[in-house]
Design a protein that fits this description.
It is built from 25 helices and eight strands. By secondary structure, the chain is an alpha+beta fold. It binds zinc ion.
Length: 471
């Protein structure tokens, strides 16, 4: 009788890594036919190959032979596959709790579009680590700031690794789970108050951040960067060491303010860099003296936006510098999305001076400018969809070449120009793209504007306390 259970287990492991029979064969030094025979149960690998298989597939030889993850049977989870599967299911469950039993197709589609990267890498484990770190920090009344593109992942958002929701702007009802997408704005923070048909107030969010922005980073073992307050610095390091205790970790303290933890597993070598940021300690102080929590206040109101429009930004992170104040003055922001654009414009290279600033003078609104990698991608993708084209490969290529400054260095090649024109890209877009040397990630910009808007809330409602702590 054929032994299928080993074959089925092997196939399950192989599919999860996204390898073909041929690729797996190459990695362990056999033909695809041999792999096929193992999977259909007509033969079994020799013991030296079993060991190699375990290495490639991330399980122990023991697990392979018993056709089970040991980790699933006891509490002590070891197999990275089992952890990844658990985390994926956890994210799925959170998605259903938030968006309903039958999740709108746009949301499900976005979730599944991240599946390949989550299966082929161990990134989801790091998202889980970040969410553990976030809750550790909350317990101590501390704030942390996760930098980079983490908020470009919907899975990261669902797991609680970031507060940035990358879906397109939308409302959802916490009660009856109705979801309404609204593309009249670019940031969910700009959506007006709305009641659900069931009478409950709806919650709005979403920043239209494509996962493609982050795909490359995830595949290339991106490192994580996290800012913490000086007080939370050592707890954060301990949290990382504890979380990754099953892996090999190396802690390097660069000085009292920077520490790098390198985590090596059979899957990757990733670095987590902790920086201290004094400002984060002041957030805690603000919450304490005013007895109001960051998480509970409505910062996306007209009153708060007006303060930004008036340039009343002393002490408000990202907007307190003269450079940013001048930008506020020149751009006349009319929405929270405009504020997000300003942060992107100020963090890029070759993006503002002699680029967006001139275009704004000529009448382009700040909301339309290229301020982020995301803007390049979304612009091209939208044009392509309007032409009935759906492939995102071209948008991805142009976005990557733009953000790396390749066009600024060598000029936009004629074929790219013609291809862009054929989908209806406007001249200003081509001009702007051709000058860019570096572009920021929107997910990172959104976390800054969230902090800035919250600080503005305190400045508006508790000016004395704010001035004492932040100025
Ligand atoms: Zn409802």
């Amino acid at each position: 009788m054929r032994d299928y259970s080993f074959g089925n287990f092997l196939q399950e492991l192989r599919l999860r890594t996204g390898l073909t029979q041929y690729q797996l064969g190459i990695l362990v030094g056999v033909s695809d036919k041999a792999v096929s025979k193992w999977e259909n149960g007509s033969s079994k690998p020799k013991s030296d190959i079993l060991y190699k298989l375990g290495e490639v597939l991330g399980v122990s030889t023991d697990e392979l032979l018993s056709c089970k993850y040991h980790s699933c049977e006891n509490e002590d989870i070891k197999g990275v596959f089992a952890i990844k599967k658990q985390l994926w299911n956890k994210a799925l469950e959170i998605m259903h709790n938030r968006y309903g039993e039958i999740v709108p197709i746009e949301i499900l589609n976005r979730f599944l579009s991240e599946q390949t990267e989550m299966q082929n890498t161990d990134m989801i484990v790091y998202f889980d680590f970040l969410s553990v770190l976030v809750s550790e920090a909350k317990k101590c009344g501390e704030h942390i700031r996760v930098k980079g593109g983490v908020g470009s992942s919907f899975v990261a958002y669902l797991l609680g690794a970031t507060e940035v929701n990358p879906l397109k702007p939308h409302y959802y009802c916490p009660d009856c789970k109705t979801v309404i997408f609204d593309d009249s704005v670019k940031s969910g923070w700009d959506l007006p108050y709305r009641r659900c048909l069931c009478t409950k107030p709806m919650i709005s969010g979403g920043h239209g951040i494509p996962f493609e922005i982050y795909r490359n980073d995830v595949q290339n073992n991106i490192s994580l960067t996290v800012s913490v307050s000086p007080e939370f610095f050592s707890s954060a390091k301990k949290c990382a060491e504890k979380y990754f205790k099953e892996y090999k970790t190396k802690v390097e303290d660069r000085d009292e303010r920077i520490s790098i933890i390198t985590v090596t597993s059979q899957w990757s070598e990733r670095r987590i860099t902790f920086f201290t940021d004094d400002e984060l300690a002041r957030y805690k102080a603000l919450e304490q003296v005013t007895a109001t929590s960051f998480d509970r206040l409505d910062f996306n109101t007209e009153d708060i936006l007006r303060e930004f429009q008036n340039g009343n930004t002393d002490g408000v992170t990202e907007f307190k510098w003269t450079f940013a104040k001048n930008m506020l003055d020149k751009t006349t922001p009319s929405s929270f999305n405009d504020l997000i654009q300003i942060v992107g414009l100020s963090h890029g290279t070759g993006v503002w001076h002699n680029n967006a600033d001139k275009m704004i003078e000529q009448g382009l609104s700040v909301g339309k400018t290229i301020a982020y990698r995301d803007d390049v991608f979304n612009y091209i993708q939208k044009k392509m969809i309007s032409k009935g084209l759906t492939d995102t490969g071209f948008a991805y290529k142009v976005m990557e070449d733009t953000r790396r400054g390749i066009y600024a260095k060598n000029g936009v090649p004629n074929d790219i120009k013609m291809q862009l024109k054929s989908i209806g890209a406007e001249d200003w877009f081509l001009d702007s793209m051709g000058k860019i040397k570096y572009l920021f990630q929107k997910a990172h910009g959104v976390t800054y504007v969230r902090s800035a808007a919250i600080l503005m809330w305190y400045k508006f409602y508790y000016p004395t306390e704010f001035n004492e702590i932040m100025l």
